[in-house]
Specification:
Layout: H1 2-22, H2 29-67, H3 70-77, H4 79-85, H5 94-107, H6 111-126, H7 137-147, H8 155-163, H9 173-195, H10 202-223, H11 227-255, H12 260-268, H13 270-294, H14 297-311, H15 322-327, H16 332-346, H17 351-362, H18 366-375, H19 385-408
Helix pairs in contact: 1-13, 2-6, 2-11, 2-12, 2-13, 3-5, 5-6, 6-7, 7-9, 7-19, 9-17, 9-19, 13-18, 16-17, 17-19
Protein name: Nucleoside transporter/FeoB GTPase Gate domain-containing protein
GO cellular component, one term: plasma membrane
Organism: Dyella psychrodurans
Length: 412
């Protein structure tokens, strides 16, 4: 699947480049493509170095949490739920606790902590995988849910809007959460369909229903806050939770008489090994993204969508938000650049900018996540992972546009 997709994107880029040269007379397109290849290879190394530091830090603290029994405790607590969702994972397996920590970190927007914990969870799942190169059902479910994970406080989107001069940076808060819910639900249902999971099981319904009620209560509380209070809470909660997790790990380790420093060093040593495995996958994925962008293929796609919308008699304001949607599955930095460009071109509080901000906050860099998480364990055959993850992304984009028309339809 991944090989065919990778090859297909290069062929699309080649056709788009030929069209720009032969029809549009643009002789610089091939130089731009070659330049993009080298730029993305260089960027891959820079990202790997940044990820190496983060992995080293968090895998060190995670080793303390494991030796203190925190991960095993979470695994026992959630054993009945994961026995239904991931039947091949034994109850009490360390992967369950790590997956829970990863989801919690994602929900709070703690990306620096979520990725290292998620990679550790993927490596634990790989110990149960009978194949060295083919993704297991449990790994696929974990990755799709991770790629569409709910972020309760999209702090980074608020920050981009504030930097662009938005009157109310948190205006897109509720639209992002609603669109994110559509993405999460689609990802879960698509994997459940492919793997024949019984989501109507009473245990699953009880956990999902209870979690839904808690989430609804938290959202109701957040919705009652003023924009200034919400922005303040977003910043405070994110940083407080990040440091609080570290303190909890250390205190639990001290209580269980775990050798803290030695445990941290042992865990941190894993950072180099994991980072080394990821680099080839990052180069492959990011070079594909660079070629696709430099060839003009995305511009052709946008022009086609605009033409179809006009001939269907639809409102075309949403098309200006699609650059963010098109590049988000491939690159977080590229989608961030598209969002910023849309805000500056159309106005930070214009409909296209609000829709682009909602898309940015409710979708994930799917191909980057696939490259990093599967690259860390050497998985090359990803089966239905990409299809389910992209379907979740599509649901997030469609929901983002629909919700923005609902909330901001009168804004030009």
């Amino acid at each position: 699947m991944l090989s065919r997709l990778w090859f297909g994107f290069f062929m699309v880029a080649a056709l788009a480049a030929l069209a720009r040269w032969l029809i549009g007379g643009d002789e610089t397109v091939f130089a731009a493509i070659v330049g993009a290849l080298f730029d993305m290879a260089d960027l891959s190394v820079k990202l790997m170095l940044m990820l190496f530091g983060t992995l080293t830090l968090w895998l060190g603290f995670l080793a303390i949490a494991e030796r203190a029994g925190l991960v095993d405790g979470l695994a026992r607590l959630l054993g009945p739920l994961f026995a239904r969702l991931m039947p091949e994972v034994p109850r009490g397996h360390p992967a369950i606790g790590l997956i829970t920590l990863n989801f919690a970190a994602n929900a709070l927007g703690l990306d620096n902590a979520a990725t290292p914990i998620g990679l550790r969870a993927m490596r634990e799942l790989q110990t149960l995988n009978p194949s060295d190169s083919t993704a297991s059902n449990a790994q696929i479910l974990f990755l799709v849910l991770n790629a569409s994970s709910l972020t309760l406080l999209p702090v980074t989107v608020f920050m981009y809007r504030a930097q662009a001069g938005a009157h109310d940076p948190t205006l897109v808060f509720l639209p992002i959460l609603l669109a994110h819910f559509a993405s999460n639900l689609t990802g879960l249902l698509s994997v459940a369909y492919m793997q024949r999971l019984r989501l109507w099981d009473p245990v699953v319904l009880a956990w999902l229903g209870g979690g839904g009620l808690l989430l609804a209560g938290f959202l109701a509380f957040l919705a009652s806050l003023t924009s200034a209070a919400l922005a303040s809470l977003s910043s405070l909660l994110g940083n407080l939770m990040l440091f609080g997790v570290i303190i909890v790990f250390l205190c639990a380790g001290a209580y269980k008489r775990v050798p803290l420093f030695e445990s941290f060093i042992d865990g941190a040593k894993q950072g180099f090994e994991v980072s080394k495995e990821i680099l080839p996958y990052l180069v492959a994925m990011l070079c594909m993204v660079g070629v696709l962008r430099a060839s003009g293929a995305m511009d052709f796609a946008l022009d086609g969508v605009r033409w179809l919308a006009q001939h269907a008699g639809m409102d075309t304001r949403f098309v200006d938000a699609l650059p963010t949607a098109l590049v988000k599955p491939f690159s977080g930095s590229a989608s961030r650049a598209m969002l910023i460009e849309t805000m500056h071109h159309s106005g930070v509080d214009s409909f296209p900018a609000l829709a682009a901000a909602t898309v940015q906050g409710s979708t994930e860099t799917t191909f980057y996540v696939v490259a990093v998480y599967f690259g860390a364990v050497g998985i090359r055959r990803v089966r239905h992972t990409v299809g389910c993850a992209l379907l979740a992304d599509l649901a997030g984009v469609v929901a983002s546009i629909a919700v923005c028309y609902w909330f901001f339809g009168k804004i030009t």
